[in-house]
Amino acid sequence: MSTIISAGTHEGGQELRSRSELTAKELFREVGSVLRLSEAEAAKLAEVQTEAPEDQTMIINMGPQHPSTHGVLRLMLELQGETVLRCKPIIGYLHTGMEKTGESLTYMQGGTNVTRMDYLSPLNNELVFSLAVEKLLGIDGDIPERAVWMRMLLSELNRMSSHLLFLATNGMDIGAVSMMLYGWREREEVLRFFQKVTGLRMNHNFIRPGGLAADLPAGWRDDVLDILESLPSRLEEYDILMTGQPIWRERLQGVGAITAREAMALGATGPILRSTGVPWDLRREMPYLRYDDVEFDVVVGEHGDAYDRYAIRFNEIRESMRIVYQILDRMPSGDYRIQNKKVTPPPRARIDESMEALIHHFKIFTEGFKVPEGEVYVGIESPRGEIGCYIVSDGSSTPYRMHMRAPSFVNIQALPHMMRGGLVADAVAVISSVDPVLGEVDR
Amino acid sequence: MSDGVETVEQTVATLHGCPLLDSHGQQVLLVPRESYVSVVKSLLADGYDMCIDLTGVDYLNMPNRTVGADIQPERFEVVVNLLSLTLRQRIRLRVQVPESDAVLPSLFDVHPGTEAHERETYDMFGIFFDGHPDMTRILMPEDWDGHPLRKDYDQGSIPVQFKGSNS
Amino acid sequence: MGLAQNVLDDGLGGIEHNFVTARIEDLVKWARSRSSWGASFGLACCAIEMMGTGASHYDISRFGMEVFRASPRQADIMIVAGRVSQKMAPVLRQVYDQMMEPKWVISMGVCASSGGMFNNYAIVQGVDQIVPVDVYAPGCPPTPETLIHAIETLHQLIEDGEIMRRREISGAGAGVELSPEVHATSPVVIGSK
């Protein structure tokens, strides 16, 4: 029996039987956590007026419009009293046809489309799209250092703002409504910085193939330092407000537990996988940008429950702050985008002077640059897990097929297994701990 | 060239009996439909224990493409991305699916996490996955007609009075 | 001015300095505009900005909208924040129908107003194809300031009674009797001035 993975827990190393020896049925604790009922059948059930015996299970709907702030997720819950037996997440209420739209937008415009998928960490979406396009173009090794470090800076700040929003919504879902206001207060600081740099608070379209859209403005170091200096004391406050508090612990510890084998079988990545004890973080294991050059810890949990996921995200804010401090020290000077005539538009000032520059600019922005034929997949670590971009190019200026592997789409598959046997109130806590963003689930 | 002396080695590597290519530094395995599930199982035993992504591509508008290594290109392709946590490597499988018989065995028993991906591929392309526990639409309404990501499915834009618009 | 003393002694003679009069309709409109509660219909990115508007920095509690009621029965304004997909459209209509009169709709963001950048099969091209919209707020997403401007415009329309007048003409609304002025107004687009 070969050991494939050794998960470190506080009871010592746990050796997992290799997955190839198990079938799907054995991989789950109880058979049938997922309610396999189509929506049409469920609707018909609702109309049947029979005399229900006392112990009959009830199938109710949660969503798509519900006050939990995770968007339009609909859950069909099969309840026995207050206990959730089986559950089926029904998605598609936010399906925007982004992959189809992506086929008609040029590579320069692709960022605007892709950035609206995971709207809580838009820069990560743009980053993975740009990395994929750059790989196809063959320029991924030539991106200037400053552009790479700027991308890291923005990506980490985005991770911080996304996790702060997680703290806010998690707090609100559990009941600590004041956390909602505090989380948003911190997020505003980061969003203000983003507005200064990119021009927009959200959905920036700033990280583009070849580099970034513009350079960092003067005084950016002071702004980032202001954010970083105000955060630690506030994080301490949130620690006191939530982490040690008995109600918080009661509501989250042991809720929505999932094992490492289950998480890997379901394809869950990000905080869910790390909460089960598997120390898998793409920034550390398969580094992109310059993550192998900065020091940070990968936060790993033990029990795989909602409390671990909360603690992981909380501490990831601190780790991101560490990374940003290092970036502040080491940000190189240089160009913010590659000077490749094919990809980079000319500087705006030159457009007035030179006809060639004008034509060049025009061609890049209307027709778009052509990308050689090929296909590529790039995956990075977004706050929710592994986000990947699979692009097939046919040599023209628009992608032939653009597919995003959204982490929340896959993480939602873990919901029924986490909710099984819990109470309905725990269902809210579980959804909140998975932290799905329906924009990327439905694309 | 079939002369008796082997002067040039066959440059196409194989893995589990399927041609292995390199695409921008990434491993791509071209898998025939018949051995699809067994290859995935062998890869699982090799250490590729996470199925990260499963999606489809419709090559209707690229009829003269070459897949490589004498594989017959079909209209649809299902692309599976596997990840090995121990080897820190990805591998991509490309399976050709003909339009006339758009059925593929499901990977649900090997990788339960493909459930949602396969439903999405069915919804968007019409590729049916045999052995999937719940083969219904996931993104579009259940009674929707057509498979949106196919190339012969219109984008469905409303006409806009703007010259440069993509619609 | 003086204090309102000896009101009973003054009797009707003191009516000029002891009483303030107004029309009930004005008071009702004044109260309605300042205490409207929103139905939470946050769909996508605009929902995040809507939550940001409700947070402490851009506080809309100062305009009376601190609570976003989950139940449509208790809400006045439905802020459609985000793109409405084909699957979501019937749900949207159902929630709108469940709201009690008087009710108003703000279409937040370009996706709700016109389909936005997603001109394709999956998105309803403008939520006004499903529900009647009173105020459109453009932006992708609109910053909280834009949303506050939209809300304040709506509040002004409520307070002026202009909206009720339109409802009266079209036959819908709470059936409040108002002066029969006819305004051929169309919903106000922010930024058109």
Strand content of chain B: 25-35%
The total of beta strands of chain B comes to 8
Order of helices and strands of chain C: HHHEHEEHEHEHHE
What is the residue-mean pLDDT of chain B, rounded to a whole number?
Answer: 82
**What's the CATH first level of chain C?**
Alpha Beta
Tell me which CATH architecture of chain C applies here. 3-Layer(aba) Sandwich
Number of strands of chain C: 6
Q: What is the makeup of the main sheet of chain B?
A: 6 strands, mixed
Fraction of residues of chain B in helices?
10-25%
Instruction: Tell me the structural class of chain B.
Output: alpha/beta
Our Rg estimate of chain C from Cα atoms comes to 20 Å
CATH architecture of the domain at 13-61 and 68-114 in chain B: 2-Layer Sandwich
Structural notes for this entry:
The complex is a heterotrimer of chains A (443), B (167) and C (193). Chain A is globular and about 80 Å long. Chain A is an alpha+beta fold. Chain A has 19 helices and 10 strands. In chain A, helix 7 (177-198) runs antiparallel to helix 8. In chain A, strands 3-4-5 form a 3-stranded antiparallel β-sheet. Chain B is α/β, with parallel strands linked by helices. Chain B contains 2 helices and 8 strands; from the N terminus they run βββαββββαβ. In chain B, strands 1-2-3-6-5-4 form a 6-stranded mixed β-sheet. In chain B, strands 7-8 form a two-stranded parallel ribbon. Chain C starts with 6 loop residues before the first helix and ends with a strand. Chain C has one domain: Rossmann fold, CATH 3.40.50. In chain C, strands 2-1-3-4-5-6 form a 6-stranded parallel β-sheet. The longest helix of chain C is centred in the last third of the chain and has 17 residues, at 144-160. In chain C, helix 5 links the parallel strand 3 and strand 4 (104-108). Chains in contact: A-B, A-C, B-C. The interface between A and B is large, with 57 and 55 residues.
